[in-house]
Amino acid sequence: MLQKLVNELTSYLADGQNCRNIFRLAVVLCLFFIFKPDFSNFIQEVPAAEHGIGGGILYEEDISDADNETIMSLASLESLIQEPASLSKSGVLLYDTHLVTPGENISTLAVNLGLNQDTIISVNKITNTRLLQIGKVLKIPNQDGILHSVKRDDTLDSIAQKYNTDPENIITANELFSGDIRYGTDLFIPGAKLDWVSLQEINGDLFIWPINGIITSPYGYRRDPFNGTRRQFHTGLDIRGSTGTPVRAAMSGRVTRAGFDPVMGNYVVINHHSGYRTLYGHMSVIRTRNGAYVGTGERIGDVGSTGLSTGPHLHFTVYKDGVLVNPRMLMK
């Protein structure tokens, strides 16, 4: 029996690879007994719910050592590791392209491309996201930001201050060789976003509907509803409603006019921010007054058929800086 074991061991050691493995094991065991490592520390698996995104390994230390030496946990060490400042700075602006496919809109594009809606809208100079067409080729930048058209009195510092960014970021992104900028050019402002009003305008979410109802006559040219032959330009939307239905302010603002007109009947005009003004006509009752401040959705009157009207409805007009605009393109 003993002779058999000796023969098998001799055969095993005849293989050079086996000898090397035994040698490595012997070295490890020698080091273990020489240095006698302390295994009082232990590793505990931490569930994802306790550790944020994903699970993790939590290293806990025995602080009852005789020398009372405090050893930092792994989490503490990680907090001392600072990312290089260069990683937070903007890089040179680069563009790729994307072909709009069926089912895509600005919201889904932003998610799929990892960019803000503001960025895609601005760099492609989109004025109405609802009119985004299939097959349109979009420019896709390698970082978030918007375009700024340089005005006559603009300086690099004033632009940077407006968007709360470092002038160096603008210089780097646009590959400027100095702080000199030219009037009329477009500068990419890294990290900047569109102001709230501009974004609401472009997305068509600026105004709420003053009443719920069907549009019986849209904005634009139409046949005269009274003689049926002459074409005339309709300055707003006619929205059908029952007499007495509450009419609500489409956006907060100040009432500048409230009264009666032979054509518009009982009407109200409200001035809003950013140069917008709305008109509400043919109401049966006015429930506000000149100079009053009204909030979005506040009742300002009731649907009626006063003035030049063929039946109960609300006439709704929108002006931007004194110019007529299509209300439907700005309504949620």
Automatic annotation (TrEMBL):
Top-level taxon in the UniProt lineage: Bacteria
MF terms (GO), sorted A to Z: metalloendopeptidase activity
Domain LysM intervals: 96-140, 146-196
InterPro entries according to UniProt: Cell_wall_metabolism_enzyme, Dup_hybrid_motif, LysM, LysM_dom_sf, M23ase_b-sheet_dom
PANTHER family to which the protein is assigned, alphabetical: MUREIN HYDROLASE ACTIVATOR ENVC, PEPTIDASE-RELATED
Protein name in the entry: Membrane protein
Organism of provenance: uncultured bacterium contig00003
Lineage: Bacteria, environmental samples
